[in-house]
Each structure stands twice: as C-alpha cells, then as structure tokens.
Amino acid sequence: MGTIRDRDAALDSWYATTAMPWSAQPRLEGRRRVDVAVLGGGLAGLSAALELAQRGLRVAVLEAHRVGWGASGRSGGQAIFGYGCDQSKITAMVGLADSRKLFAWSVEGVELVRQRIATHAIDCDWRDGHAHVPIKPRQVDELQAWQRDLEDNFDYPTEWWERERSRAEIASDRYLGALFDPKSGHLHPLNYTLGLARAALAAGVQIHEQSAVTQLLRGDGATRPMLRTAHGELEADFIVLAGNAYVQGIAPELDSRIMPVGTYIGATEPLGAERMQGLIRNGIAVADINWALDYFRPSADHRLLFGGRASYSTLQPLNLRATMIQRMTRVFPQLKGVRLDHVWGGYVDISLNRAPHWGRITPNIYFVQGFSGHGIASTGLAGRVIAEAITAQSHRLDLFAKIPHHPFPGGRTLRTPLLVAAMAWYKLRDALW
Ligand SMILES: Cc1cc2nc3c(=O)[nH]c(=O)nc-3n(C[C@H](O)[C@H](O)[C@H](O)COP(=O)(O)OP(=O)(O)OC[C@H]3O[C@@H](n4cnc5c(N)ncnc54)[C@H](O)[C@@H]3O)c2cc1C
User: Fold this and answer.
1) Residue 249: partners with Cβ closer than 8 Å, 6 or more residues away
2) Ligand 1: centre distance to CA 206 (Å)
3) 329-340 burial: b if 16+ Cβ within 10 Å, else e
4) Is the entire prediction scored with pTM above 0.90?
C-alpha cells in the first residue's frame, strides 16, 4: 500500500499508451516577466492561458511534471453539464436567479469543449450522449425530480428512459431507468488536454514543464507577485493558481478548503466493436448516482473504461485491480473473465459542499479549485471566467465567488479521518436503501 504520489500513476493509464505526440517544453530558467503566470498545466490552467493569450496578454504556464500529468490526463472523460454538487444546493446558497445563470454557464462549458475540439482540430474521440442511471427505486424518484427541475427551472430538457429502454441501451440488469442527455458526451481526456496545450502554444503561451512552483510571493503595492521554482522566477501582473489537489503549501487558505480524494479507472482488454456495442448500444457514457459511484464508457478501440473506486484516505486501495473487476462484473456479469489491461488513478479536489471554489486571494492572484470530480467541462469555463476577470469583466467570477466555502473541519491532522468516517456513512446509506 502506498499513496498514489509514490509513483506516476498516469504512466499506467490506457490514455498514456494512446497519447498524441507531444514535444517536451523547456523548464523555467532564470528570471522572466509576463503579464500572467499560471500554475498548473491541466485543463483549468491551459484554458485560462489560452483565453488570456487570445485577449492579447503574454502568458506563461508552469507545470511541475508535464502537460496533462494530473487529473486532466487521467479522468473518466465524461463531459457533463452542471457542477460537482446538485444544482438545488447551489440554488439554496445563491438563490434561483443566480443559480440559473451558473447552470447556463455550465452548459456553456460543455459547448466550449465541442467548440475547441472543432476550432483547434483536436483529435480526442468525442462521442455524444450521457446517461445518469438509478439502481434503487428512491434513485428513480430522485432522477425524475431532477429532470423536472432541469426542465422547469433551468430550461434544460433531457430524456427519461424507462427500464426496458435503458436495458436496451445499456446491457445491465442493475439499472431501473436512465436520465439521458444527448448534449453531454465523452472524450479521450489526455488527448484533449494535449490538444488544448498545442492551441495555447500556437496562441503564443509559453509552457514550462518540469517546473514545480515552490513559492508564491504575493507582492505588495510596490512589487509584483511572483512564482518561484528551483531554477527560476516568474514575475507577473497577475497570477492564476490552477494546481488541483496536487498543489499544496503554496496558498494555505486554499489548501484548507479542498480535500484530495483518490479515484480509479480500469481499461479492459479490447472487446471488439460488436461485443462493445452489445454492452452499450450507442457508445454513450454512463454514471450511476451512488455516492461512491460507478461510471463507464467505451474507448475508441472498443475497450470498456470503468471507473468505480474512490479513496478518501489518499491511500491507494489494496487489491485495486480485483476490486475494479468485481465492480465491473456487478454491472456487466457477461464480462466475467475479461482482463483489465490498465488500472490507474488520480486525485480530485473536492470542496466541502462540492461546489466550484473560484475567486481571488488578492486583487491580482486568482484561483480555481473545488471541481469535485466534475471538471472536464467546468475547467474550460473556469479558464474563460478568470480571463474575463483579469481583463476587467469580473461579473461572472464575482457570482462564483458568492458561493460560500468553509474549511474542512479537523484541520490538517483530523480532516482526513473525519472525511473517511463521513464517506463511510454515505456508502452505508447507498448500500442499505
Ligand atoms: C480518475 C479521475 C476520473 C475523473 N473523471 C471525470 C469525469 O469523467 N468527468 C469529469 O467532469 N471530471 C472527471 N474528473 C475530474 C477532472 O478530471 C478534473 O476536475 C479536472 O481535470 C481538473 O483539472 P485541473 O486543471 O484543475 O487539474 P489537473 O489536471 O490535476 O492539473 C493540475 C496541474 O497542476 C500541476 N501542479 C500542481 N502543483 C504544482 C506546482 N507546485 N507547480 C507547478 N505545477 C503544479 C500538476 O502537476 C497538474 O498537472 C476525474 C478525475 C480523476 C482523477
């Protein structure tokens, strides 16, 4: 047993074996100056960098490892509307009128993924369609209530599939129906991230890999803020922090408001087009609505990519491969005996209320975090919203900053055991009724 920080889990992923070519970018050396310095070469940092460069600013990204090394290059690839928490929770926090705006912007996030794929000709296997599926009668009620809320309050129609239709689309007896959204979809997340990085380079962004930020100097009225690495210093008018749960100790007031949670995926051996189609007729992505959820989708080479194990303790679970197979065959017993060729994991940055945590810590240091396992689409939006704010249009960021965020209880030492205990309760609830 060890933490997934012990080794580069991204290297074991199916994505890494099917990644598009990428030229390593030079590490930061010496002292440099730009308009905006971005910490983090994932989807959030790259999206901010691209949007800022498109607005004419000089931008540099500092990435500790390489582009897409973090969650963005490892994820389930399911690009879905909304945020990490139910929209009703956001409505309770900011009121219906503002919640409507936030929801519409999340839909813009999904649309932005499609636009960027088209505009920058990113080859990342996009496929339309996503279904949320219920396992229990109470979850049927929950999903149907959600569908009504989406339609009545957010003007977002979806389809309800009764059990028979759901069974015809997804060859599993586990599900009692499905809430289907044709506008959401799925993609190869590493290739999308690399494609976005290429677009950023083409727009003039400098990307420095192997350039871990060791210190944030906040500046004062007289001095500009700066990011320091072992080999260089990057001074800027504005700084954007987009390091996900992987960044720690750079801005303690941000660390205390997210928890790193490990989450894992397996890729089966290639199943062939026909067998794959027999499992998921139209190649859509699927996720159940349990607290510790299962989610899956086909890959372009007809493997099943199955995510379904989280670790709230940050320790990689024992017998991960066996557990993943067990979960997968609970959904698809017909896959008994099928190999998992790859198993990998990464961290998500969950906030206490699972809502996005975006804002400023000083007038010229911005941050985005708290994607809470729901970041493929909303990271793109986050980058755009930060770029707008830096170029003096901050009404959207100001609305996100209205969402209240509290530190995890227990401080550095107790927050992990408390979270583990809380999650055990939610899992028990899912198991019992
Ligand atoms: C296994 C898994 C499955 C997921 N599935 C889905 C899904 O299906 N749908 C969905 O919407 N979301 C999913 N997510 C969540 C989604 O991937 C993330 O929300 C999103 O990719 C976060 O992007 P990011 O840019 O904020 O973070 P990251 O992609 O993690 O990028 C942060 C980068 O910052 C760098 N960094 C950190 N510290 C420093 C430092 N000090 N100096 C320099 N660089 C630093 C890291 O190396 C990293 O590359 C999943 C996540 C995981 C891990």
Assistant:
1) 255
2) 20
3) eebbeebeebeb
4) yes
